[in-house]
Amino acid sequence: MAQTFTCAVSKGIPYCEYKGKVRQAYMNDDNLVLMYFEEYIDLSVVSAAGYSGVSGTYAAAYLHTENPAFAEALYSTILTALAADKEVAIQMRGSQGGLLKIDRFWIQQ
């Protein structure tokens, strides 16, 4: 199954959703967690939902210091999906350093 990427507005709040595989997981000493998409996303879909300032088409991000418990569970789940070659679904709201910010995460069977 190929990845899907969509954006919409719900109750006046834009969000985007990615369904596909994790290509790569990343965390740096600035506490930034990245989950790389299987393929690049289309920024015109992101801007049509009302987001500005998003320039990264390759990954979604989460800053560990915003909620360390969520960030640790998120990174662990990303690594699990990557190691098991499982599909994931993530929702993103807002942006972090030019990337969409991860808000929710699921591993698909």
Number of strand segments: 6
Strand content: over 45%
Shape verdict: globular
How far apart lie the N and C ends? 12 Å
- State the order of secondary-structure elements, H for helix, E for strand: EEEHEHEE
Give the integer mean of the pLDDT values.
95
Query: Based on helices, strands and strand pairing, what is the structural class?
Result: alpha+beta
Number of helices: 2
The whole-angstrom Rg is 13 Å
How would you describe the overall organization of this protein?
By secondary structure, the protein is of the alpha+beta class. 21% of the residues lie in helices and 48% in strands. It has two helices and six strands, in the order E-E-E-H-E-H-E-E. The radius of gyration is 13 Å and the shape is globular. The two termini are 12 Å apart. The model has no long low-confidence stretch (mean pLDDT 95).
What order do the helices and strands come in, and which of them pair?
Blueprint lengths: L3 E7 L2 E15 L4 E6 L5 H6 L10 E5 L4 H17 L2 E10 L2 E9 L2
Parallel strand pairs: 4-6
Antiparallel strand pairs: 1-2, 2-3, 2-5, 3-4, 5-6
Gist?
This protein has 109 residues and is an alpha+beta fold.
Features:
109 residues, alpha+beta
